[in-house]
Amino acid sequence: MCADDGAKLTKRVVRWILQRLAIDRMSVSATAQALGLGWELVNNAALQACREMVYRDPTPLAGVRILGVDEHVWKHTRRPGEPSCYVTVLVDLTPTVTRSGPARLLDMVPGRSADVLRRWLQAHDPGFRAQLEVVTMDGLTGYATAVDDGVPAARKVMDPFHVVHLAAEKLTACRQRVQRGLTGERGKKTDPL
User: Fold this and answer.
1) What is the pLDDT of residues 115-165, one digit of tens each?
2) pTM of the entire structure?
3) Where would I find the Transposase IS204/IS1001/IS1096/IS1165 DDE domain in this sequence (predicted)?
């Protein structure tokens, strides 16, 4: 079957959309423009396909020991009164750590806060929360608070990208402080520091 009954797009086009968004990291706008389609149609197709992938598995949370939590800017422009353009992305990282396969998208929840993650964790049974050993995240205090509340036994770990980013920021601040201390000014591109 090429497309579901009543579908506006074929399964092949939806797959192409997901590949552009997930693999090529194209924006929804750029993907829609490449296809000559509207932003809302492409966005809704991607959301629906993700929901189907997530909810097709009757036990999507079985075996999840390492949970990845991060935010993603789903929409880069926001009009006054519109809801947050952030989503909290939840990923099963267990297969990547055990080298048994790729990471698996578990869910995407609108917003990014302690409450968003706390509600998501509480919506799942205690057995799932008990099996979590590690939760990786960025430095957002809200996520750490939600993990402390929802899965206190899990080890909280900052993901590698954010560790490197934080270290680079601290190194830059240190270099700038030394530069100002030595020369009394901010420094130029050609300075040795």
Assistant:
1) 999 999 999 989 999 999 999 998 888 899 999 999 999 999 988 888 898
2) 0.62
3) 67-188
Q: Say which DSSP state 142 is in.
A: H
Contact 131, 64 (CB under 8 A): yes
Measured CA to CA, the distance from residue 122 to residue 49 in angstroms comes to 25
In angstroms, rounded to a whole number, what is the distance separating the alpha carbons of residues 92 and 78? 30
Amino acid making up residue 97: V
| Look-up of token digits 């700038």 | 176
Question: CA 68, CA 91: separation in Å to the nearest integer?
Answer: 5
Query: Which residues lie below 8 Å from residue 134, measured CB to CB, with a gap of 6+?
Result: 65, 66, 67, 154, 155, 156, 157
Quick one: pLDDT band at residue 176, thresholds 50, 70, 90? confident
Please state whether 161 falls in left (phi above 0), alpha (psi between -120 and 50) or beta: alpha
Distance CA 113, CA 188 (A): 39
Give me the DSSP letters along 38-92.
-HHHHHHHHHHHHHHHHHHSSSTTTT--EEEEEEEES-S---TTPPPSEEEEEEE
CA distance 2 to 9: 9
